[in-house]
Amino acid sequence: MRIRGTARVDRQTKRLIHRLAPGDIAIISHSDLDAPCASALAAKQVAAVVNAQRSLSGRFPHPGPGLLLRAGIPLVDEAGDRTIQQVRDGDSIEIVDGAIYSNGTRIAAGKPMTDSLLEQQLAEAKQNVTAQMADFVENTLSYVTREQSLLFSPTDLPQLRTRIGGKHCLIVVRGPDAAGDLRAIRSYINAARPVLIGVDGGADLLLQEGYRSHIIIGDMDSVSDSALRSGAELIVHAYPSGDAPGLSRLQALNLPSTILSSRGTSEDVAMLLAYEKEAELIAAVGTHFSLTEFLEKGRSGMSSTFLVRVKVGSILVDAKGISRLYPSGRSGMLFVYLGIITALIILVLLLAAPAAIRGTLDLWMLRLAAFFRSLRL
Question: If 0-12 CB within 10 Å is exposed, 13-18 middle and 19+ buried, where does residue 196 land?
């Protein structure tokens, strides 16, 4: 394996993703590389990924490394912290069988991830799932004890200029397959006109698909300046202490914002915001739904995510379910094409028919129009 490219270096993978271009070599420090970050790296079409840490620690069988290999992106694992320290952003580097060279000097070396090595590490990690499940349950129960007010009492939320009450809300997080899920529910978005809430990088995903967020919420470290300047209402997710690291960025951009202090993740806060503001329905794209995803993240805050789903579950729908109710793509356009053809046939008949028959056709046209109006209602 011999790969040359421009190094892009950052200890925070989600921050690095915005600076990557096709052909770059991403140098990260990410223990247990999760699926969202791996998918984002693959989408950037990087030449290779060098991880200073172990992409699979053995705690849980994370799918991230496998996603990179299936995308044809080489992964050099356990390269050590020296890689982060010695390689500067923008350096031209070369990877030769796991060794990293800069200006002809060997500065570090890691383990090239192979299919056989990945299979071995996944098998070892699967043996630890039971222990991780026990830790998750214990942490969840502990969270219920500490944070009952979050679940059972109205959350202290700011006043919004965007009206949510009685409307559908679509919450978009930049998770695995989020772009495909968003495209799959295009017909739903066009029909229901939901309030669009982008959670950090989810706002960029909405822009890429031709939509503009009404609200952007998060710590503002993985959303682009263009999304922040799109005119959305900005809500900075702060720690319970009130400290809001993302506020300084918005102030530097001279953008007005509101601070919302809460435990849990930004997507939790987005769901609570929609729920407490009396949304009729909450649709979710790219968010965490399965127990596997909760365990995969491996953070204590994921217990709050699980419990928030319990609270808002009566009005929460995943995008994959919505796509089955609102057909899109070819199946959806088929009805449009049939409608156009039917209208043209009727128009030709009206123009060609004698006056006696035309009156009958006019009557049927009125009935047909009434029928389609009833469908819309």
Answer: buried
**The whole model's pTM is what?**
0.62
Which residues constitute the domain of residue 157? 130-325
* Residue at token pair 């290779």: 48
Last residue of a domain, one of 325, 344, 366: 325
Helix (H, G, I), strand (E, B) or coil at 45: coil
> Length of the chain in residues, anyone?
377
Distances (CA, A) of 251 to 121, 185, 202, 246, 348: 45, 35, 21, 9, 62
156 and 61 part of one domain: no
Cα separations in angstroms, 206 against 197, 203, 223, 232, 289: 9, 5, 11, 12, 20
Nearest to 231 by CA among 252, 258, 213: 213
Strand order in the sheet with 215-218: 258-261, 233-238, 215-218, 195-199, 168-173, 281-285, 316-318
Do 302 and 251 fall within a single domain?
Answer: yes
134 and 181 share one domain: yes
Q: pLDDT per residue over 193-242, tens digit each?
A: 999 999 999 999 999 999 999 999 999 988 999 999 999 999 999 887 78
Q: How far apart are CA 372 and CA 210, in angstroms?
A: 28
Buried b (16+ CB within 10 A) or exposed e, 269-306: bbbbbbbebebebbbbbbbbbeeebbbbbbeeebbbbb
The number of domains in the chain is: 3
pLDDT tens-place string over residues 40-94: 899 899 999 999 999 988 877 888 899 999 999 999 999 999 899 999 999 999 9
